[in-house]
Amino acid sequence: MFKSLVSIITPAYNASEFISETIDSVKAQTFSNWEMIIVDDCSSDHTREIVRKEMENDKRIKLIELPQNGGPANARNVAINEAKGDFLAFLDSDDLWLPHKLERQLSFMEERDIAFSYTMYQMMDQKGERKVTLIHVPPSIVYKDLLKNTIIGTLTVMLDKRKTGNIQLFPARNCSEDYGLWLSILAKGITAYGINEELALYRKCENSLSSNKLKSALKTWNTYRKIEKLNIFASCWYFMNYSLRALKKHTNL
Asked: Any idea which GO molecular function terms this record carries (predicted)?
């Protein structure tokens, strides 16, 4: 149906507990023209062995083994540099996609000739049990909207790199590198468009950085100051808006 190749960007670090399930969710996609680039960030568990075994059965799966740990932003950049597809999709090593995710999103983007899209998603716990609340998304977001809101889930993003141009995450310490990337794209005047349809499952692990609300808030603040270079007054204004939306979001979970 579609000829476009989608490159799936997956950083992995000590992901042996979940990586097989994540790969299975990609292999189950109704759209089949994809490559999955898994960048192992010097894991100390069996992540690499699991991925190598998956590669034997499916040549669309590729493994890059880093000699030393550089963090998820660096791992994503390595995968982006190796990607052969016109479209990039992002999936962390513990999250899942529903079967129609790629087909539905690629159709949405090609029919509208857009550069950046994201979708609704559902939370699940560490055991994979779904929570009741869905994370609904707005129909579109521009740069100033996104400064007030971290609603875009990384596992739902798809980009047409022919329209976004070359992209790289900025690996700033204690910042939200993926959020910073979305902001850098929208700062070019690009609009991101949302599909208010559940197409992905986000695993909320108890020991993950994002599960710590204080750390997450600090990373957002540092993104304003270190990556976006906003002054203190603008940073306070956007952070207040972000905090109110985050409070509402987590209250409903």
From this structure: glycosyltransferase activity
Domains defined for the chain, CATH in brackets:
6-251 (3.90.550.10)
* Number of neighbours of residue 66 by Cβ within 10 angstroms: 17
How many residues appear in the chain? 253
Q: Is 50 helix (H, G, I), strand (E, B) or coil?
A: helix
CB atoms inside a 10 Å sphere around CB 68 = 7
The secondary structure element, H or E, covering residue 197 is strand 192-203
For the stretch 93-107, what's the b/e string if a residue is b when 16 or more beta carbons lie within 10 angstroms of its beta carbon? bbbbbbeebbbbbbe
DSSP 51-68: HHHHHHH-TTEEEEE-SS
Cβ count within 10 A of residue 117: 25
Mean pLDDT of the 124-144 span: 88
- Pair of tokens at residue 137: 């998304």
- 138-196 per-position pLDDT tens digit: 999 999 999 998 899 999 999 999 999 999 998 877 899 999 999 999 999 999 999 99
CB 17 within 8 A of CB 95: no
Q: How many CB atoms lie within 10 A of CB 145?
A: 15
What does DSSP assign to residue 69?
-
Cβ(78)–Cβ(166) under 8 Å? no
Rounded to an integer, what distance in angstroms lies between the CA atom of residue 51 and that of residue 38?
Answer: 8
pTM: 0.92
d(CA 130, CA 204): 10
B/e letters for 153-164, b = 16+ CB within 10 Å, e = fewer, are: bbbbbbbbbeeb
End-to-end CA distance of the chain: 37
